[in-house]
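Fill in residues.
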């Protein structure tokens, strides 16, 4: 336990890092809004107009996929005793998990530098100075021009979540990819059943707009599901390979043909445990869990 008088103040800590003169007085960049709300906790939001538009489009994409998949396709067949309740419940589960993962990925702090406690004893002798924000950072950190801050082990800035993907929210981003893939897969198979297996709906009011134009709504959902399946599947494979090789998207862009001897190949268990943190793997796909941080030694000069 730390004695109260032994805990250094933030000003003392920042001074010890050499940030008191060069760094801005605010802990956060002018592009970041941080709010603490009941139940939701501490939320991190990026003030970027293009990013907000992309995030809004992503949300509307989810709204349409959920609404059309349920109201236009599955629920009418369930009323006709054709679609089973467990199948519809699984569709709802994927949709709820998807929107929760989107919210978490978009509002979690990706790993602002310095994202360390005042009680941590970290040797920063081999850290480097960022020439943009004038803060010392670990070697694998990167400065994001949209967030205007350095992010620990930054993978990339994703406009579709209006946030960086870094050490602290990478697991939420992977959850989003997984659940969006599952939701798209469920939508695709729902439409295949609708087209080729289920008989025509007998309880639908054909004068309603949604059933009068059902064909075009289904076509749009099918196109959306196929595009999302391909996009999410490609990203899941790429992110999985990056995790195993212990590389980031930015590192791959800077050095697309690295020396094989410099690549750190890990087991999938080790890679995902490092990303998801401690705790049971049964909850790794649960978006509302809080990650118990494991700080790998290669982020810093010495393990903490």
């Amino acid at each position: 336990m730390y004695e109260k008088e032994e805990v250094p103040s933030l000003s003392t800590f920042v001074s010890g890092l050499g940030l008191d003169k060069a760094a801005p007085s605010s802990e956060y960049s002018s592009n970041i809004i941080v709010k603490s709300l009941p139940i939701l906790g501490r939320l991190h939001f990026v003030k970027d107009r293009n990013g907000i538009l992309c995030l809004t489009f992503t949300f509307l994409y989810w709204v349409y996929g959920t609404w059309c998949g349920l109201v236009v396709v599955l629920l009418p067949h369930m009323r006709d005793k054709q679609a089973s309740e467990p199948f519809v419940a699984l569709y709802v589960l994927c949709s709820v998990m998807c929107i929760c993962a989107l919210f978490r990925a978009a509002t979690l702090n990706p790993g602002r530098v310095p994202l360390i406690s005042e009680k941590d004893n970290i040797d920063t002798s081999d850290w480097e100075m960022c020439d943009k924000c004038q803060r010392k950072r670990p070697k694998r950190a990167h400065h994001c021009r949209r967030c205007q801050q350095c992010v620990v082990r930054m993978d990339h800035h994703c406009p579709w979540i209006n946030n960086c993907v870094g050490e602290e929210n990478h697991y939420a981003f992977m959850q989003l990819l997984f659940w969006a893939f599952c939701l798209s897969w469920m939508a695709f198979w729902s439409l295949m059943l609708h087209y080729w297996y289920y008989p025509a709906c007998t309880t639908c009011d054909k004068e309603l707009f949604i059933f009068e134009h059902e064909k075009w709504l289904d076509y749009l959902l099918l196109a959306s599901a196929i595009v999302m399946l391909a996009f999410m599947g490609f990203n899941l494979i790429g992110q999985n390979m990056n995790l195993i090789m212990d590389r980031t998207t930015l590192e791959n862009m800077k050095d697309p043909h690295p020396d094989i001897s410099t690549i750190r190949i890990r087991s999938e268990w080790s890679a995902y445990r490092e990303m998801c943190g401690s705790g049971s793997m049964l909850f790794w796909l649960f978006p509302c869990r809080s990650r118990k941080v494991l700080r790998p030694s290669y982020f810093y000069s010495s393990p903490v």
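The longest strand covers residues 32-37.
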